[in-house]
Automatic annotation (TrEMBL):
One of its GO terms (molecular function) is shikimate kinase activity. It is found in: Plastid, Chloroplast. Residues 1-24 are annotated as: Disordered. Its cofactor is Mg(2+). Keywords: Amino-acid biosynthesis, Aromatic amino acid biosynthesis, ATP-binding, Chloroplast, Kinase, Magnesium, Metal-binding, Nucleotide-binding, Plastid, Transferase, Transit peptide. Belongs to the shikimate kinase family. It is an enzyme of class 2 (transferase). This is shikimate kinase. It comes from Panicum hallii var. hallii.
Length: 278
């Protein structure tokens, strides 16, 4: 597994080529913007949550080239938690679904599924992940289905991957609340959105088997809720989950000193100085 060169931030642009559909991937320009800071989450919810994470005393140690809050079912909170992690770590954040939309030139994943096909979306998703895999200091929230293509693992394993493990029941509740229009695999007419989402999520979980469990770090909402002594995952905030993710990332790094050792120390020093300066 590759790690970032800590403070020696990668400054070359990734080799972004044509997307799988023949269109040029659109995020080369965005990556430049990200380095200029415009994609960083500053004042929004993730910014506030990042302040809360710091206030609760977690010292982020991220000698990582790349963190991928990549695994986890639809609605598990990859984007929400990924933005907080990026803010705390001082990394750029990317949502791979959004990058596919840009690459293809369509407004939503749902539209891509409808006009083209899931296979077309998957091809483009792989292209986006390939392009991201050459970048440094970023957090990527991938689509929940990225785990099903072995080629994507080659790309995801260029960084450290985090699995947000959320019970299906909690996921179905969230999805029933926010609606399924943006998630075509769940979007079917139903009088009972919770049961429809739960049934489909269970089927997908069955199909995907252990794919998520290959992640470097697993963040289990049930474990966090148990630690908090209430056992109710619906009470957990994105901040709680981000703190646990940072702990798990720290553990993984500590367990792999050969890969992360010296780089980790350098990065920890630089981050401590940055956090103290806030
Ligand atoms: N810890 C949480 N508690 C309650 N709702 C959450 C939590 N994390 C995310 N959400 C909500 O669930 C929905 C899906 O979250 P999102 O981050 O988009 O998931 P993903 O990127 O994994 O599909 C969003 O409406 C988000 O606001
Ligand atoms: O699990 C999946 O197969 C998918 C998850 C979605 O992303 P989110 O996990 O961000 O919802 C999106 O990529 C697409 O609708 C397919």
């Amino acid at each position: 597994m590759e790690v970032g060169a800590s403070m020696a931030m990668q400054s070359r642009a990734p080799g972004v080529g044509a997307g799988a559909g023949g269109r040029r991937s659109a995020f080369l320009g965005r990556e430049k913007q990200a380095r200029a800071g415009s994609l960083r989450v500053g004042a929004g919810t993730a910014g506030a949550a990042a302040v809360a994470v710091r206030a609760r005393g977690t010292k982020p140690v991220a000698p990582l080239r790349c963190v991928r809050a990549s695994r986890g079912m639809m609605g598990s909170g990859k984007s929400t938690v990924g933005k907080i992690l990026a803010e705390v770590l001082g990394y750029s954040f990317f949502d791979s679904d959004k990058l596919v939309e840009q690459a293809v030139g369509m407004p939503s994943v749902a539209e891509i599924f409808k006009v083209h096909s899931e296979a077309f979306f998957r091809e483009n998703e792989s292209s986006v992940l390939r392009d991201l895999s050459s970048m440094r200091r970023l957090v990527v929230a991938t689509g929940g289905g990225a785990v099903i293509r072995p080629i994507n693992w080659n790309y995801m394993k260029k960084g450290l991957s985090v699995w947000l493990d959320v019970p299906l029941d909690a996921l179905a509740k969230r999805i029933a609340q926010v609606g399924t229009a943006s998630r075509p695999l769940l979007d079917q007419p139903s009088d009972d959105p919770y049961t429809a989402a739960f049934t489909k999520l269970s089927m997908l979980a069955e199909q995907r088997g252990d794919a998520y469990a290959n992640a470097d770090a697993r963040v289990s909402l049930e474990e966090i809720a148990a630690k908090q002594g209430h056992g109710d995952v619906s009470k957990l905030t994105p901040t709680d989950i981000a703190i646990e993710a940072l702990l798990k990332i720290g553990n993984f790094v500590a367990e792999h000193p050969k890969t992360y050792g010296q780089v980790g120390d350098l990065q920890a020093d630089s981050q401590s100085r940055r956090i103290q300066a806030l």
